[in-house]
Specification:
Number of helices of chain A: 9
Largest sheet of chain B: 6 strands, mixed
Largest sheet of chain A: 4 strands, antiparallel
Strand order of the largest sheet of chain A: 2-3-1-4
Bound molecules: adenosine-5'-triphosphate, magnesium ion
Radius of gyration of chain B: 18 Å
Distance between the termini of chain B: 41 Å
Largest interface: B-D, 35 and 34 residues
Shape of chain B: globular
Structural class of chain B: alpha/beta
Radius of gyration of chain A: 30 Å
Strand content of chain B: 15-25%
Oligomer: heterotetramer
Number of strands of chain A: 4
Strand content of chain A: 5-15%
Number of strands of chain B: 10
Helix content of chain B: 25-40%
Order of helices and strands of chain B: EEEHEEHEHHHEHEHEE
Helix content of chain A: over 70%
Shape of chain A: elongated
Structural class of chain A: alpha+beta
């Protein structure tokens, strides 16, 4: 069994190089298609991250009465933290809020008129982030029931609805596009390998006439397909690695807001995707192609 | 496998009828019963062919161009299926053989194709070795066997060349080497000397005769009148898809 | 000459169908790649339309003094209309503005408190749209010089800058992606046709040995490539036509704001793109492939 | 073109030397001067070959398998280039011929390849017609010419079949038909009867003789000893890449 595998791999290696023109054509197609797939996957991942980031921004803001009793305030905070829908609760003091406001004005280059103010017109607030942006109902109800502490609740209700609809839509579109691109890549690669194997139909026919069993013919082709996939995947990864840093810097310089840093987890997933898709499609393509000549 | 079995030099029925009687005591390597083959385009290449070849026989298959010799050979290795009748190889009905069994049956036979059918991207050596590899012969036994058979057909010097780098005759000899290398019990050769000069032709024929004497059955389609007439072996004549004669000790041309 | 063309086309037609397996594989690749190209082109066009729409929203808003003399106001309006940078000038009365505001509140389901107002706190305004959103400088300067009429100018300066940067960026990205996709499509199609022709290398060799001139061999292949391209383009167009209406409705139902209706002009451009790319790439692919066998 | 010119039955120099003297009065269709051919893999297939063939000649090229016959023929149609020496066809130095002129030169020659080289997806009829189409013959003249030549080689019934649907001999005859159909001034046939039965072989040879008598030059590489010996035409013997004899009225085997 092992001998057979070793032997088949050796024949696959020979086959790859002796039909170098076709192998390289197939590999080149593989590379381009994997790049396309990886590109879409990155965009999809980035989109998801961005959407998550936007959704995280969705929160319920409770303006607090300046004279709210500290213990009641504390209790409200604790209750909120205990609610299953709530992701985080942050207390922002009115001084903090004013500082933030000034910083923002400055960043925008606008004149800071807040210096002329006698008192700080901004309230203390509680910023409540939700685990699921759609679950704001209970939180708002609860806050509305605390008039001593809370002066006003701004659930940004409509905004929430809109954002959720938009992000869900974009997510769906992203997944659909990714699936379509995936199918395209699948078809193109299988088709390319089919054409490459077609040019060797005569070879397969002769092997059969000389008494080669189906497995004997098939396995070298399958390993050859795997080689095409593996080579293609490796080169794709190299290209991605080379392109990654400048692209990331460029993106980062632009979308300062979005956390488009790719962590090691993303890199691992991407590597798995590219190598898996490459080898998988290579094998599938070879299998399908050879099968059509063996079945007759 | 019993390539060296003592069934070697067989006595054949000596009548020159259309169909030698089947002596049940002999094992039949090949048997065609009422076989007809009509190609999908409607051309009837074989009609009512009855033919039996006992083990150890040496048979020349002769007939004009287009008579159906190659078609008959294609039926024997199940490259084509008969449209009527039975084709038995070693007692197995090829028409009923499941697809998966076909390679095993083909490996029993050494076949020289009229158009050689060499693997275009393998060297002479690799082409010949391929016939051993498909049988699962261990690598260490392949080398010596291939070298030996290449020396037999005079291609030792061309072992590393690709088929496209060979002369016509060298290609033909590669095909012959591949058919012999795995010591098959049956050798089917379709016009194996068409591109060989008379000297090498005779050498190849002598080689086949020697192999036949060791017990291997040989069926050879040929136009080489000189060889057929000189050897006086069994001659099966095809014409227009029909067996028109089956003589032991016959000449290339009909002698009546 | 004409005979030669007719003859070559006939041979191309034969060649296409006698190598139907390869021709269909090449055509299938062609279709997928053209769909990809068309998809990206549509996205790019939609993006451009969207960006244009956003840029059109950028305007300079001049709040007017309630007691501005009518003749001076008229003069300001006339001068603005005469400025080359200005696309349009709209006078929005304070009553109109209040109505709009109320409508907007109502649409958002918010409580309308404006009923309790004694007077309308909103000013009359002039909304000035610019031809090029970057050219707001002169307009703002002019308005600032009319204190009797104009109480405050809101050029949304920063917003303008930001929007322009974002839209320019997205436009650039769109074009770059379109070019990359275009190159991918080019390569894949040429490569596929190469593989298809490769399987016929022997045929080309024999033709040469029998004394066929290069042109005699080449033209049928080129017409065959054109056929692959044309068939592919036609099927692509059919697919696009079938998909267009539901997709458009879906998009429209979602992005109510964006004018994503495709006019006949867009349809014409798309048809030209698909047919042109298909036939062009088919011809190019055949030319390149056959050339490599003729050059030797 | 002067296929029917009266240079028909030429007198040849009758000495049996290695190289017949060049009679300057005769037009040379072929001339090889000190030609050598070494293949890229280092195999020397031809060495110091000198050979001239005047118009109207009928030459048999004989020699054992691998002697260099096909290589010589490949040089004559510039399929390969000589590594040394000059190859002249109709006075044109093929080594200096610009690439664009090659098809024009090849069209002057009718060539039967040892491996036939039929277009795999064209029918017999179309394969033969192809040789006329490349010359720009108008369509209405192609039909009758193809039908006529197919009848000559006995393939009228197979006209619609593809090469894969033909017997070996039928493929060979298709190749012959294609070489004859455009009335070339020079016919080069590489082992054209290897897959034909003796009867059809003789018919083809007779056909070539008749065509030769009309003034067409014929060069034929063959292993068919019977034919060569019977006809007593000019015989050029190759061995190991060298011309070892050049006799007018020779036999297949050396007669000293
Ligand atoms: N695949 C096919 N489809 C249709 N007809 C075929 C096919 N193969 C062979 N034939 C026809 O069947 C007849 C017999 O062919 P076959 O190859 O058996 O002849 P043969 O005796 O081997 O001749 P040769 O000596 O020329 O090789 C021929 O007339 C041929 O045209
Ligand atoms: N492309 C090639 N590359 C390397 N060697 C070659 C090539 N073609 C032919 N040869 C070698 O050159 C020698 C002469 O070959 P050629 O085909 O001319 O022989 P031939 O006389 O036609 O023989 P045959 O009668 O067998 O056809 C052979 O030994 C062959 O192996
Ligand atoms: Mg045959
Ligand atoms: Mg030869």
């Amino acid at each position: 069994m092992l001998t057979f595998v070793v032997f088949s791999v050796r024949r696959a290696w020979q086959g790859f190089w002796r039909n170098s023109l076709m192998s390289l054509a197939a590999t080149a197609t593989m590379i381009l298609m994997l790049l396309l797939l990886a590109g879409f996957w990155i965009i999809q991942t980035g989109l998801n991250a961005g959407l998550q980031f936007i959704e995280q921004k969705v929160e319920v803001v409770a303006d607090l009465n300046d004279n709210a009793p500290a213990d009641q305030l504390l209790q409200v905070e604790t209750t909120l933290r205990g609610m299953p829908q709530v992701a985080s609760v942050t207390f922002v003091s009115k001084d903090q809020a004013l500082q933030d406001f000034r910083a923002r004005l400055k960043a925008r280059g606008q004149e800071d008129l807040t210096g002329y103010l006698d008192t700080n017109p901004l309230p203390n607030t509680l910023e409540i982030k939700l685990k699921n942006p759609q679950d704001y109902g209970n939180v708002v109800d609860y806050l509305d029931g605390q008039p001593t502490v809370v002066s006003q609740v701004t659930p940004i209700q409509n905004l929430v609805n809109q954002v959720v609809t938009v992000t869900n839509f974009l997510r769906t579109v992203g997944v659909v596009v990714l699936i379509l691109v995936g199918l395209t890549v699948l078809f193109i690669i299988v088709n390319t390998i089919r054409l490459a194997v077609f040019a060797r139909a005569e070879e397969i026919e002769i092997m059969r006439l000389v008494g080669a069993s189906d497995a004997f013919i098939r396995w070298p082709f399958i390993f050859e397909g795997a080689m095409v996939g593996l080579f293609g995947a490796l080169i794709t990864l190299v290209v991605l690695a080379v392109v990654a840093t400048p692209l990331q810097e460029f993106m980062y310089g632009f979308f300062r807001v979005l956390p488009l840093q790719f962590g090691t987890l993303v890199v691992r997933d991407l590597t798995l995707l590219v190598v898996g898709a490459g080898v998988g499609l290579g094998v599938l393509g070879s299998y399908v192609s050879v099968r059509s000549y063996l079945i007759r | 496998m019993a390539p060296g079995s003592s069934t070697g030099l067989l006595r054949h029925p000596t009548l020159a009828g259309d169909r030698p009687p089947e002596t049940t005591s002999e094992r039949l390597v090949l048997a065609l019963r009422d076989v007809a083959k009509t190609y999908p385009n409607g051309r009837a290449a074989l009609r009512d062919v009855n033919l039996t070849v006992p083990e150890g026989d040496f048979v020349f298959l002769v007939g004009p161009s287009g008579a159906g010799k190659t078609t008959l050979i294609k039926l024997l290795i199940r490259d084509e299926l008969a449209t009527a009748g039975q084709v038995l190889l070693d007692g197995q009905d090829l028409g009923r053989l499941p697809r998966r069994q076909v390679p095993r049956v083909r490996r029993k036979v050494g076949i020289v194709f009229q158009d050689y059918k060499l693997l275009p991207r393998k060297s002479v050596w690799e082409n010949v070795a391929f016939a051993l590899e498909v049988t699962g012969t261990p690598g260490r036994r392949i080398g010596p066997a291939v070298d030996r058979v290449l020396r037999l057909v005079g291609l030792a010097a061309q072992a590393r060349q690709l088929p496209t780098q060979l002369s016509g005759g060298e290609q033909q000899r590669t095909a012959i080497a591949r058919a012999l290398v795995h010591d098959p019990r049956l050798i089917i050769a379709d016009e194996p000397t068409g591109n060989l000069d008379p000297l090498i032709s005779w050498e190849i024929i002598q080689l086949l005769l020697r192999i036949n004497e060791m017990g291997t059955t040989v069926l050879m389609a040929t136009h080489n009148a000189e060889v057929v007439t000189a050897l006086r072996k069994r001659v099966v004549g095809l014409e227009d898809g029909r067996v028109v004669r089956d003589e032991v000790g016959g000449a290339y041309h009909r002698e009546d």
